[in-house]
């Protein structure tokens, strides 16, 4: 069930803000609700006068988290007894495809709703207030996953904005079911409005030939433009050396976007390219060409790195001589795309609890933390950029807000005019060791109050070692998710009457 929410908040008093030069200064955030809309926006952020401080250790207030790419219908298959026979035996990508196809044959709406709510509950508790959620449409599930997604979108609308993707995971221009799959996707896209299903997604690399993959791309671009949808491709998901693999499909995507005049015909709709692990083998010339084609043609293209899935699945081919596999891995280098080539790039969780990604959680902060090691991104500026990649940058990449300017803005500061989706991180002792003073445990000479729980006072500390969900209070469109940390106005909230 969706979480219970408070009445609309008017002010949040005495908080620290991410991205401030003085991390100890405190601020008051005022919210307003234009035209009596239930969705609040930040109307002012002013210095706190210290007369109304309600917490000895003020919380850190940050923009809420976002899933720019997550599969709603395939979540937690491994946690459901119905699918216990489908647990991984080899861990290969082909096995994941085939076992997921078997699982899909058993999908029913109640099961989809149950597992979808598990994902939504975990995500919202972590601080996610918006997501791009993939639901599959094909000959196996027909429109069942889509119908479940629409039900969840409506049911959870107050806590999380769900942007649904009508997703063709299976071939649509090859195999015996290609034509039927394509017809089902076209029917769905035309049956539902962009407000209900805002994105068209396909997987060109599953087609039986490179020619069919290119037809997949061309069809998707034209249909998305015709029906006013954002477009999202799973693309170039391999690490095969260039001599063994055709030219990456990213070049065909960019060519068709230019040829079809996406920018002039599709107004504000965006194109997302997911996985793209093959691009991690690019030399400097490849990256330079990619950036030039996107910038010169003003293409609204974003890249989403999916490291938990990519590190597990995107491996180089096994040695032909049967030797032990060294297991080189690849995932698109997100910070480099942003910092060196000024490309739009973000991070996404992708899958949770299924054969494509049997490890990891739905918490985007854990993903940002993983990025520190993957990209050797250990500076404070790196940490702030990684936070933005699972927050404000991710929201803009899926078309739910305008991109931040200047481009170098990491995206960790709350701003006037932002939607009132906020995560507040409190200093809460979840070790059970610092809750109350214990004179018997104090060494000689240690004064009362000297021992205190470790706090996280900056965005970098939050990314380097994400705090538990017990420390997080979530504001969803101006209303607070009720939970252990919320006790009336004790934490500085003032509510509308």
TrEMBL record:
Compositional bias of kind Basic and acidic residues: 441-459
Tree of life domain: Eukaryota
Gene3D superfamilies, per database record: Metal-dependent hydrolases
Region (Disordered): 38-59, 436-464
Biased composition (Polar residues): 45-57
The name this protein goes by in its record: Zinc metallopeptidase
Biological source species: Aspergillus keveii
Organism placement in taxonomy: Eukaryota, Fungi, Dikarya, Ascomycota, Pezizomycotina
